[in-house]
User: Fold these one by one.
Assistant:
Number 1:
Amino acid sequence: MGVVSIDLTGLALGTHDVDWPDLAALQQPTWGDPVALAQTLSVLASYPPLVFAGEADQLRERMAQVAAGNAFTLQGGDCAETLSEVTGPNIRDRIKTILQMAVVLTYGAGMPIVKVGRMAGQFAKPRSQDTETRDGVTLPAYRGDMVNGFEFTPEARRHDPERLLRSYHASSATLNLVRGFTSGGFADLRSVHAWNRGFIKGPAQKRYEQMANEIDRAVRFLEASGVADAEEMRRVEFYSAHEALVLDYERPMVRRDHRTGLLYDTSAHLLWIGERTRDLDGAHLDFISRIHNPVAIKLGPGADRDTVLAIMDKVDPDRIPGRLSFITRMGAQRIRDVLPALLTSLGEEARRVSWICDPMHGNTFTSPGGFKTRRFEDVVEEVRGFFAAHAEAGTHPGGIHVELTGNDVTECVGGAGEINLADVGLRYETLCDPRLNHQQSLELAFLVAEMLER
Ligand code: PEP
Ligand code: MN
């Protein structure tokens, strides 16, 4: 962000002129009060866009480089953002973590890294059950702060449309800080050491310090030689993404680009559709096929060739470079069986999209203490299986999509910090899925950099 020159003339308000077809939409809130909802939707439609069409176009160009095998994308952030965790330190540490991982990947792989935050809109979650029962009391399940509250009370669990507006404002505040950090000098390549400050110093952070010393030397060499472009080193392109799940949030955020008349979802640069809402005749695929942002679809181990081709024909019939990515989340146990066959069966079509590995969602289990967790080793194994599958099929392993935090949590087991199953509850802060902590995120980046080097 911060690189596109933006023409502000003719910015349309919310697109009331779009006739959204009445299709089945899974995982939607039941708001109750239709009058309050209608008011909220029109307020949301009157708000300024959070991102610009030109920025989304630029990300599509970057993703075209990913699809072509010339770049790699790093997508990361919380499973679910929460309104109360939208704080300066949290956002800063997540950005620092992603910048650190990206620099490790760039340095190791010598390839441009397209950086995408799973943030500034990731406030809603699909759930496997509509309700939750505790001690004989049944209430609506927590669906993310965009819909209801986590607290187990009838009042908190009520679906409240006011939360759509609060999510917009929280996203706006988050993006404002992201833009400040990534264009205001904080992301300067001469600050690689500073990004590591304030974190606990484990083996991965130490390894990072050594690499940062090498980068410093290289930067000084380039500066002394007069070939360093100061402006290019000062800023970084950083894009936002979230799951397009709650259509009452996404639809009012759609705007018509005055340059072309095309529709863009201005809630984020990239939107994805989850494994649970990607049915071909459903409202989510219809929505995503109408907007011109770069988009992604999650694919679980059951996805077959015909389904993938049908998704491509619906969402990206013209096979626009950079338009469509598939985020596979097959599980460490299944990926080596399932993904090579799927890629091979797609033939040339597999080269027209980007392939991204989500090594998190196929590897979740419950600890003996009752916490949802994942093993770091399974995460790494799934990424290895992903690289092996693409090597076998002759396609490009285009990126990773991970749930992470800059905080020192104990939500995933394993890694150099040797978090074991009994420790998972110690600093378990996520309200939804377990995230890699800072150390595990850096460790993963070093391992993926080695896989990319080969
Ligand atoms: C997620 O990304 O948090 C998620 C719910 O993933 P999936 O749709 O792959 O289950
Ligand atoms: Mn998740």
Number 2:
Amino acid sequence: MKIIKAEVFVTSPSRNFVTLKVTTESGLVGIGDATVNGRELAVASYLKDHVAQLLIGKDAHRIEDTWQFLYRSSYWRRGPITMAAIAAVDMALWDIKGKAANMPVYQLLGGASRNGLRAYGHASGTDTEQLFDSIREHLELGYKSIRVQTAVPGIKAVYGVAAQTQASGERYDYEPAGRGAFPQEEDWDTRAYLRHLPTVFEAVRNEFGPEIPLLHDGHHRMTPIQAAKLGKSLEPYDLFWLEDCTPGENQEALRLVRQHTTTPIAIGEVFNTIYDFQSLIKEQLIDYVRAASTHFGGISPLKKVMDYAAQYQVKSGFHGPTDISPVGFAAQLHVGLAIHNYGIQEYMQHSDATNTVFEQSMTFKDGYLHPGDKPGLGVEFNEEAALSYPYQQAYLPYNRLIDGTVHDW
Ligand code: KDG
Ligand code: MG
């Protein structure tokens, strides 16, 4: 089944997405997600200028061989741009294989291990009242697990707080990347955050009771000892997980965190390969793998890292913000349905404009996601609609401390 065409699309229905479309001689078409928030054109060029020509004439059925060829032949391995480009090819080939077999991709990965995928939603607020309203709204939508992010007194703008006006004057909601040529500057104070957050979780537990699984994202902003302190102070509120408590680069940090707290740890949304997880999983320093199919080289390596993690009772918690396109999202739903060590799936609904360009067949019902049973990934890419949403320059914000020092965002 020869590949005859590989095309790259950059479109911005509410936010930017990079999509690869692979066409075979027999007319079967597969799509893949290569979106890297704020660096979209770099990955589009990587695909257009360096990968597309390598695919022409290749057998679309040879997914593993193509993956290994792209990974090893580039010599300069890993990194978000390379791995997102490889991810898009991998997803497109799984999509094609599913269509050729007339089966959804999860069937090719071993079949369903459960009926649906437990999802978590994102509640946030600038004050307790707003946060409680947001939690109630999410419960009404069917979410059974909820991530809690709040404003911190004295800090103007905090990642993950939807209703809060940002430095740009806009609201985050589900798109923190501000339009324009420069990233917005925001402020940060870890001590204020460490003082405030436990009081928020105490209030939430008092209002909503002990049952509901609660999650929190530290977004890489703490030192190891600060993260250890936070994990410890949140123990009474029984978190499902504390995510990205320290920057992703320093794996040693989690050894220290682990020595101090039993709060479960999740990390990996900025990881690109299985090697980033190697010691974290083997030494059981984490409880959840946060990788996203899009930034991790696709479906093939995501399945492999989860099979490795299974030996250590580490579960999945794949990254699912709206900057993962519906194609990347579908890819990880198929993996999540098939693996035994599924944990939870992050779920942020895409906008109507996004759903016009990417027609999804996945469902969300009573708190559970399902990728659907259409052959392949189950997402149709509407090229004509994509054309009416041209790329818009947009960048994620960054933080500075009170004395002007740049800090993790
Ligand atoms: O583009 C950056 C987002 O993907 C990231 O900020 C979202 O941390 C995130 C999450 O947990 O969803
Ligand atoms: Mg995160």
